[in-house]
């Protein structure tokens, strides 16, 4: 028997004129099954293929969903190899039987008939995470992307093809709640639609007639369809109820990366920050698909082939052609210390009453740089000024905006003290206008 009666389709020997004792014959298990998991709405589309043994004429099959989170209102059956010759006529819900329905199928063919069955269920979820291993020189990185699927749906899925979707889905009803309703759709028994033993039957005509007695039909409203992306996990996996399973989604052996240390007191405080960059494009052996958001664990390959832990961080959804910036946290071995070594005021300007109306503030700063790593490091240093009226005497720098400059340099390995000095002149009061 199929476990927990997820899709327990059984042939029923049943006189047409009477719903009485029923003999059940178990049908073969699924031939194939595909899971498409939408995380944002706790929604999974299940598509499975089974081979039913049908006779010509009327066949009655039982569909059970007890102890699972299937939405019975979403179940759909199709026989693509026998289009128009196998039709689901109606669905009947026996009274006082929770999680069970009887399908009436009319078939113009006899024998083995492959059918596709699809439905929505709840209780399946996924999350992505990344394992990154830097080369010894930190110029290359192995990138492995895993998807962990957790199954709390009440049903085992054997040899399932798994697909996961990034995007937001809005539902009028929750699948888990629909799975617990009886009868489905919240339709009460009505005498005019009752058969023997008050069995409730749905047919196309009856659905249309009884619509006024039902809750609004379930709809899925999709937003930003162009932002959706489907991730298909290669091969098939068995995902049992109550278990989680890690599936490999991507494995790039040698991904070019750029390591950078950045000092920016406005953003990070008084410690340099360690960053790692790569781009989701073909030049980096990527670029075929976006990358899902998830946790990133980063290690470094040591010269003796052992691994050392570097950091853990998180990444957001990464579209194709977008550069990725991984923030690895405060740097322990690279230090930047700005020290004010001289300060004076000069070039005073006076108004008609003899009061000071403007002057220059001249500051001399020394940046003490230190690299205790066994590798040279690329370093960016941002310096922010109090206002946009200034001049500077310094080495090579880049003007970032009106009140910010950036130094960029390579600091050799094992550098104990590297000094970078600049003199900043800030124009105050009337001196701002005279300095233009």
TrEMBL record:
Residues 115-384 form the DUF4139 domain. This is DUF4139 domain-containing protein. It comes from Candidatus Thiomargarita nelsonii. The lineage of its organism: Bacteria, Pseudomonadati, Pseudomonadota, Gammaproteobacteria, Thiotrichales.
């Amino acid at each position: 028997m199929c476990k927990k009666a997820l899709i327990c389709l059984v042939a029923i020997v049943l006189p047409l004129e009477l719903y009485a004792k029923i003999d059940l014959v178990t049908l073969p298990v699924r031939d194939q099954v595909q899971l498409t998991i939408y995380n944002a709405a706790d929604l999974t589309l299940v598509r499975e293929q089974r081979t039913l043994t049908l006779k010509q004429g009327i066949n009655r099959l039982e569909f059970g969903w007890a102890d699972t989170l299937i939405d019975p209102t979403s179940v759909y059956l199709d026989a693509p190899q026998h289009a128009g010759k196998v039709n689901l006529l109606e669905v009947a819900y026996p009274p006082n039987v929770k999680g069970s329905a009887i399908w009436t199928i009319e078939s113009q063919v006899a024998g083995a008939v492959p059918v596709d069955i699809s439905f929505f269920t709840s209780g399946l979820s996924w999350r992505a995470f990344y394992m990154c291993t830097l080369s010894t020189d930190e110029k290359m990185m192995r990138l492995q992307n895993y998807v962990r699927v957790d199954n709390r749906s009440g049903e085992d899925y054997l040899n399932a093809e798994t697909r996961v979707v990034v995007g937001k889905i809005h539902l009028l009803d929750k699948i888990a709640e629909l799975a617990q309703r009886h009868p489905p759709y919240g339709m009460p028994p009505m005498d005019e639609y009752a058969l023997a033993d008050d069995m409730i039957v749905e047919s196309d005509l009856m659905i249309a007639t009884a619509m006024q007695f039902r809750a609004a039909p379930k709809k899925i409203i999709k937003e930003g369809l162009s932002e959706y992306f489907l991730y298909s996990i290669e091969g098939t996996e068995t995902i049992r109820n109550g278990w989680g399973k890690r599936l490999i989604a991507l494995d790039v052996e040698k991904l070019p990366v750029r390591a950078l240390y950045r000092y920016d007191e406005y953003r990070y405080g008084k410690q340099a920050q360690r960053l790692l960059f790569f781009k989701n494009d073909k030049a980096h052996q990527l670029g075929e698909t976006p990358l899902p958001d998830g946790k990133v664990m980063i290690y470094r390959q040591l010269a003796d082939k052992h691994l050392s832990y570097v950091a853990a961080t998180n990444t957001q959804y990464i579209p194709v052609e977008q550069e990725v910036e991984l923030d690895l946290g405060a740097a322990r071995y690279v230090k930047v210390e700005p020290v004010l070594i001289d300060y004076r005021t000069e070039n005073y300007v006076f108004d008609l009453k003899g009061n000071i109306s403007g002057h220059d503030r001249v500051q001399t700063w020394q940046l003490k740089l230190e690299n205790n790593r066994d590798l040279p490091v690329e370093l960016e240093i941002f310096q922010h000024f109090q206002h946009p009226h200034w001049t500077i005497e310094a080495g090579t720098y880049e003007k970032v905006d009106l009140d910010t400059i950036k130094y960029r340099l390579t600091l050799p390995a094992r550098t104990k003290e590297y000094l970078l000095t600049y003199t900043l002149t800030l124009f105050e009061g009337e001196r701002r206008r005279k300095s233009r």
